Structure formats: structure tokens, C-alpha cells
Amino acid sequence: MRCRKCDQKASINMRHHKLALCRDHFLEWVLAQVERSIKKYHMFTHQQRILVAISGGKDSLSLWDILLRLGYSADGIYINLGIDAGVDYSAKSLDFARSFADSNQARLHVIDVKAVYGETIPELAMRTNRGHYKPCSVCGLAKRHIMNQFTSLHHYDVLLTGHNLDDEAAILFGNVLHWMGSYLVRQGPVLEADRPGLARKAKPLCRMYEREMAAYAFLRGIPYIQDECPFAEGSTSIYHKQLLDKLEADRPGAKLDFYLSFLQARKDGLFSPAIDHQSDIVHPCPECGQPTSAPGLCTFCRMLAKSGNLPSINEMDLT
Amino acid sequence: MRCRKCDQKASINMRHHKLALCRDHFLEWVLAQVERSIKKYHMFTHQQRILVAISGGKDSLSLWDILLRLGYSADGIYINLGIDAGVDYSAKSLDFARSFADSNQARLHVIDVKAVYGETIPELAMRTNRGHYKPCSVCGLAKRHIMNQFTSLHHYDVLLTGHNLDDEAAILFGNVLHWMGSYLVRQGPVLEADRPGLARKAKPLCRMYEREMAAYAFLRGIPYIQDECPFAEGSTSIYHKQLLDKLEADRPGAKLDFYLSFLQARKDGLFSPAIDHQSDIVHPCPECGQPTSAPGLCTFCRMLAKSGNLPSINEMDLT
Known about the structure:
The structure is a homodimer. Chain A is globular, with a radius of gyration of 20 Å. The first copy, chain A, is of the alpha/beta class. Helix content of chain A is about 45%, strand content about 10%. The first copy, chain A, starts with 11 loop residues before the first strand and ends in a 13-residue tail after the last helix. The first copy, chain A, has a single domain (about 35-230, about 235-265, about 300-315), classed as 3-Layer(aba) Sandwich (Rossmann fold), CATH 3.40.50.620. The longest helix of chain A has 18 residues, at about 25-40. A six-stranded mixed sheet of chain A has the order 5-4-3-6-8-7, with helices on both faces. In chain A, strands 1-2 form a two-stranded antiparallel ribbon. A two-stranded antiparallel ribbon of chain A has the order 9-10. Chains A and B meet through helix 10 and helix 11 of A and helix 10 and helix 11 of B.
């Protein structure tokens, strides 16, 4: 297999794009693709302050790398969830995040959940027991809350996450299997800050296959944590990914078509605007000030109240 | 495993309903379920004239059987497509349809495509060559056309098809993979006769799993053609069914939830009414008089014109 551009030996063959490229042309192609998404979906500009949610995995570190190479002003934020699970997961992830920041002279904010809230995510989950033996729902809630609060308080224009096409297709598939109307109308490359206190969010890798991002990290020599979160095993989203992987293997390009035709259909007015119930009036949480749908504490502060731990944002340790 | 109702040995265990039943209670349950769908979706009444599209397979013959047992006035229509494919497919299917009609003293209309249009479906497809080596698109077009025309001309109130839940979930899945907006807004248990010349259509088995219908036909002792159409092999709809079968095996009830949550979301106003472009003005085809979206011949008559064969409906052989 030869590179389409220079006829050198190809490093990657992308069947869904009918495109084989050598290392250098692939890395160049990834940059161009991501830049194209940033512009197409009006995600942000070179003048804006960008915050990237860093997990220490291939997607978020590759995204940060791409943004820096494209000349964007992008800081990182790492939330230390305190997940050990016998494999020292959070500590190792943090090492990869720090190491990337150091070698790129980039700024990484680190929020330590235990230091700020007195307990790690597994401890919080164990205590508040949100009806599931796994801490995933508590973890998702905490991450969304902390990221949103940090982005707003530190006046970043946009918060970026490393969700790739495989992630987005799996989320869409899950939303479609149960026809979650209010999620369907909001899922997309950009979540606008359409309510007071809500940070603007974007996903510049939404059109990049997971395999492409793994190849990018590998070919760029970016060290990253290769393990999945130990709690992710057996999750519904991984199960949906496996079904879509089968579809993609049999019909190359199916995931991309699924996601892009969804965006197009929504743009063409498939969904009734009235369905976006979330855009109704929001209330500031009396504890943290973040927007919440009903008067009173937000879901995150309610959870903390259960565990008897309500620190203010000023206690957040930044390193 | 014991029958939930009478504690006899169960004949079927339906994991998705967490329900095991003996032969008699299962057959009673199927009747009640179908009657429930007929009423819930306002499909038809005991006073109306009903036409059932009969293929000779388990679903259409079981549907006919159920309707007769529920006391509905239901005739059948069989379209002889002239598919041989080395297995005498159409002739055998017709035998099963005739045999059911005879043993139930029911009326079966038979339309012979070759007698009316001069060519079998495979011959028509071969000649008009609609860009595919398989006759499936020509066959679907011809069946829709003939059924619709026959239903209207003979003043039936509604045309029923034997689509079961597995069929409906697979169609929905296909529509969702490519986000076919105009199909999504119209797919459902009932297709209203909302344009002049369009027959009302309904699918009373839309909530019944394929496996349930196979069990019904078996336990009722209904002989039916067990082969799939020889041209169906490798079709996209069968492929989608296999993916959904995997999902159902891992998550019992997933197909039903997928389909019912779709209907609920649509009822709740998820889709914008403006998307149903098909409800725009229609024109009567100058040849057959059936509704078509653009002035001039309808798609079916255009296809026939290509093959130089344009019989009028009065030539239709009825037996």
C-alpha cells in the first residue's frame, strides 16, 4: 500500500475514506481535518482562550497536541478523580498529562477531587450510593460540574473534550435506542453556552475515528495511558461501541455516515425546536452558583450535601 | 418452565416480556396482543372491509388467521411475482396461500404479474435494469403499486401487511443509520390515506416478535413457506436484523424498547411536522391514476413504459 500523496510506503490505510497515507502526510492530514471541523462548526478562533479537558489518554493528549501545532492558545485541565482500583489509574494518568504539558511548555491545571471535596470519586460514590455499584454516574456528574465551573470562573471561552467519532456515534446510538429526545436535539460538535453560567463546549475530534487518533498519538510519539478506566469494563457505551465496530467492519464508513447524516438531518430541521426542554429557565444553585433546572441545590451539591462536604470553589487546589 | 397462567408446562418463554405460557394461553395471549394493537393505533373496526397482503409466509398467514379468529371481515391478496430461482418460490408460496384460504373458507385475490404485465418480476427487473442486479427494488415498487391500486379500486378500507416487530425495528434502524427524515416521520403502525388515491395501511403485528409469530404459526398448525425469498440473501435489511438480533440476545426487550420509544418520542413531538415533504401536493398518474409526486407517469408506469408494456388495471386477472 502506497501513500496517495507521495507514493512512499503508507503508514495507515483508511478504508472509510479510501485513503492510504505515509506518516508525514497522515499527520498533516489529521491537522487539516481537525482544523476543518473547528472552522465548519464555528468552534473557536485563534484569539480565544481555550481549555482542553485532559484525561491522559490518546484522544485528549492528541487533541492538545494538534491545537498547539495549529497555533491555538490552549491550556489543559486534569481532574484527579482518585481512582486506584489496584492499577494506580488516576496517578498514572496524571503523570502522562504532566509529562505532555512539561515537554510542550503548556499550562496544565490540576484539580484534585480528594483535596477539594475530602473524598475521591470512588469514596464519594460509595458513600452517596446513587443506586449503582459503579462510580460512573457520580464521576460523570463531578467532571461536568468541575469542568463547567472552572471554565466559567477562569474566563475560558470554550471547553474542549477529546470525544472522537467512535465516542459520538456510540452516544448517538444509545440516544437513538431509547429515543432520548432532549439529548438528540443537543448532541453535536458544539454545545452553546445558551444558559447563564453554562460554559461553551466543543469536540474538535468528532469526525476522527478512534483508530486515526491512536495512529496519530503513536506516530507523533505521544506517551499516554493505554488502559481504559477500570470501572468502564462492561459499560453500555463500550457495548454500543462493539456493535458499531461490527457495523463499521462490514460497511466501512458507516459510523461517519451515521453521525454526519444525523447532523445534516437536524440542520435540515428534522427535530421540533420545542423538544429542547433544557433551554427553559434555569436557576443558579445557592451553593455553587452553577445553573440547575429546579430551584434549590444542583445535583452535584445535593450529592455533596449527602456526604456532608460542601467546599466553596475558592478551596479548589490549583497546581 | 411453567405457564404463568395455569402452571402447565410452558410452550414458550418470552424473556423480553418475562413471560412463559403454555400452548393455549400463548395463542390466547397473541390474539389479545394483536387486538390491543388494532385498538391502540385505531387501525380498523369490525365494520370495515379489510384486505391482507399475503406472501405465504408465517407472518401474513398468521395475521390472517388471527383476524378471522377475532371476527374481522378480512380477504387476502396474493401477488404472484413469478420468482422461480430454481426453487419454484412463487408457485410454492401461492400453494400455501391458497391452502390457507381454502381451509378457512376465506377469499383470496390472486394477481399474476406475468399475466397482467407480460413479464415476471425478475424479467421486468432484468429488462429495466434499475441499477442493481437484484430485482428487490422493482419488486417492492410493483407490490406497493399493485396493492395500493387494488385496495382503492375494490373499496377496501385498509390494507394490512404482516410486518412484525423485527421487521419494523430493522426498517427503523436502517432509516436511523442514514437519518432518512421523511421516512422516519412516516414509519409507524398506521399509514394514513392522507393523499388522494393512497390506500390506508396498517401493521397489526408491529409489536409482535418474529419468534412469537413463528411459534404462533407452529402451534396453530398453519403450513407456510419457510424459505426466505431467494433474492433476499445478503440484503441490507437481513444484515440489520442480525445486528438487532445480537442486541436483543444481550439485552432482551431492546427491539421493543427501540420501536416503542420511537413511537412515543414522535407522539411527543420530537419531529418537526414540516419534514413530511411527502404530504405536499400529489398528481394522478395519467396512465394508472395513482398518486405520484411529480406530474407525468408514476415510477411504476415509467418502469413499464421502458419495458413497452402498459396494461390498464382492467386487464388484472383475478382468480
